[in-house]
Amino acid sequence: NFISEKDLLAAMSEAERNERSGLIGKRKHLQDRLASSEKPGRPGNEWADYAHALFNLKEFIYIR
Length: 64
What we know:
The protein is mainly alpha-helical. The chain has helices at residues 5-11, 14-37, 45-56, 58-61. The model has no long low-confidence stretch (mean pLDDT 85).
């Protein structure tokens, strides 16, 4: 029940193969841009974000 990439390419028309190739190239370009645009966070910032979220909860304010 496995269809190989070779079989898929053989079943595609020339236009479909060209479109697939273009889409794969575009995906690679977008993945590279995403990887380069991600800014590393400061270490330990996750706990500060969590504490900030807790204090912003309205329910948390009324706990005694």
